[in-house]
Amino acid sequence: NTSYGSLPVLASLLARDNLLPHLFAIRGDRLVYQHGIWVLTACAALLIILSGGDTNALIPLFAIGVFIGFTLSQAGLVVHWWRGRPRGWLPRTAINVLGCVATSAATIVFLFAKFLEGAWVVVVAIPCLVLLFRRIAAYYLGVRRALTLDGIPPRPVRHRTLVIVPVAGLTRLTVQALSDAQSLGDEVVAVNVGLDGTENTELAEAWAKWDPGVRLVTLSSQYYSIVRPLVRFIRSIRERSDDRIVVLIPEISPQRWWQNFLHSQMSLMLAAALLAQAKVVVSILPFRPEI
Questions:
Q1: How far is 231 from 225, CA to CA, in rounded Å?
Q2: Is the pLDDT of residue 21 over 70?
Q3: Tens of pLDDT along 250-265?
Q4: CA-to-CA separations, 102 to 64, 70, 89, 115, 217, in angstroms, rounded
Q5: φ and ψ at 130, to 5 degrees?
Q6: Where do the H-state alpha helices sit in 183-222?
Q7: What phi and psi values does residue 131 have, to the nearest 5 degrees?
Q8: CA quadruple 233, 236, 240, 243: dihedral sign
Q9: Reported confidence tier of residue 278, pLDDT bands at 50, 70, 90
Q10: How far is it, in rounded angstroms, from Cα 284 to Cα 246?
Q11: Closest CA to 181 of 191, 190, 172
C-alpha cells in the first residue's frame, strides 16, 4: 500500500526534475500516475518470481531500503540546518546527526549480515539507478540546448510539399485519401507496390480510365515486402529534391477494438519505418466503414 501510494508520486517528481522519462509525470484518466503504477507492478511481479514466492527472502531488501531512506533523510536535514542556521539549529542538527549515525549503522549491519541472502541486489541496484538518472538528465539537457533559440528566430519559411499516398487498389479509401492529400500539399503522388516482382497492370489501367489528376507510380517487390520499396522510393526523392515530403497512409479504422486484429496493421509498420527518415512527415488517415 505504501509503495503504490508513494512510488508513482516520487517517480513523477523525479520526472519533473528530468531524472526519469517525462511519461511518469503524466496523470491518467483516473488522475493517477498510471505509468509508475504499471512499472511498480512489473517490478513487484519480477521480485516475487525471482524469490520463488518466499516473502521472507524479500525482508532484507525491505529493511535495507527503509534504513537507507532514513539515513538519506536525516543527512538531508543536517545539510538543511547547516545551510540555513536558524534560531535553535544546533540542537536540531545534533538530533539529526545522531539519527543519521544510528540508521547508517543499522544499514551497514543489514548489508553485511544479509549480503548473500539478497542484500547484494541493493548494492548493485542503487549505483545503476543513479547512473540511469544521470544519463536521462544528460539527455534532457542536450535536448534543451538543441532547442534553445539564440536571440530572435527567423521568420517561418514555406516549403513546397509533396504528399505521397500508398494505395493498394482503387477503392473509396483511395478516393478519400487522395482528396485529403490534395488539400495538404502542392503535389500528390500515389504509390502502389506490386508483389511477385510484377507491377499491378490492372490498377494502372483502372487509374488511367479514372484519371484523378494524380500521378500513379507502380513499384515491384521481389520479396513480398511493401515497406522496403516505399522507403527506397521516398529516399530517392529526398536525394534529388528539397521538397517537404508528407506520407499520408490510409487505413481502415474498425468500429470495434477486436476487429483491429483482422487487419494487417501495415500502416503501423510503414509509419515506424518512415519515422526514421529525416524531413519526412508521416500521417495516418483513418477510414471507418459502415458495416
A1: 11
A2: yes
A3: 888 877 777 777 776 7
A4: 13, 10, 20, 19, 76
A5: -65, -40
A6: 201-210
A7: -65, -40
A8: positive
A9: low
A10: 10
A11: 190
User: For 284, phi and psi rounded to 5 degrees?
Assistant: -105, 125
Q: Which of 191, 186, 213 is nearest to 203 (CA)?
A: 191
Could you write out the DSSP letters of every residue in 47-98?
A: HHHHTTT-GGGGHHHHHHHHHHHHHHHHHHHHHHHHHH--TTHHHHHHHHHH
Measured distance CA(288)–CA(15) in Å, rounded: 38
What 8-state DSSP symbol labels residue 196? T
Q: How many CA atoms lie within 13 A of 217 on its CB side?
A: 14
Q: In terms of pTM, does the model score above 0.90?
A: no
Cα dihedral sign, 231-237-243-249: negative
CA–CA separation, 278 and 192 (whole Å): 22
